[in-house]
Design goal:
The protein is mostly helical. It has helices at about 15-30, 40-50, 60-70, 80-95, 100-115, 120-135, 140-155.
Length: about 160
């Protein structure tokens, strides 16, 4: 991928073994059922985000990573927590360490709503772009989140 000046931007990635070790650490320190349910559901998004034809920008890669780990249930437990931790690590690896604390804070509730099908991948992408590049959510993103939550609440009544 190239930045606007034409300079090639190189992304850094982590492998399945690192993702599993992060997950195991999370389960050990916060509780839950250890183990992997489907290693392919973990390996696939880690490989796919390396394809710059499909995921050319940081926010595209991060969205796919977080969404896939959250929704595909590669692990027996801790998928939401692992999606946040691995997303934060991916940010840090790629020089976005200044936004990691905000990412973790903002994404805590978002991860639950993604898992519950309240927030879809497109809205997650908009949220992640905002977290990375803006000081706070725009009014349109705030409204989209509120509307998504209201729709989910009406469906659950």
């Amino acid at each position: 991928m190239n930045d606007p000046t034409g300079t090639c931007i190189r992304f850094f990635y982590f492998d399945v073994a690192h993702a599993v070790s992060v997950h195991d650490w999370i389960i050990e320190h916060s509780g839950g059922l250890s183990g992997i349910k489907d290693i392919g559901q973990l390996a696939s998004p880690l490989e796919h985000i390396q394809n710059d034809w499909y995921y050319s920008e940081m926010e595209d890669k991060l969205t796919h990573l977080v969404f896939s780990i959250n929704k595909n249930h590669a692990f027996n437990d801790g998928n939401k927590r692992s999606s946040l931790a691995l997303g934060a690590y991916f940010l840090e690896l790629n020089g976005f360490d200044y936004v990691v604390k905000r990412f973790v804070k903002e994404m805590e509730n978002i991860a639950v709503w993604v898992a519950d099908n309240v927030i879809d991948k497109d809205l997650l992408h908009r949220i992640i772009c905002s977290v990375i590049y803006e000081d706070e959510y725009s009014e349109s993103i705030k409204l989209a989140i509120v509307e998504a939550v209201e729709v989910a609440e009406q469906l659950n009544r």
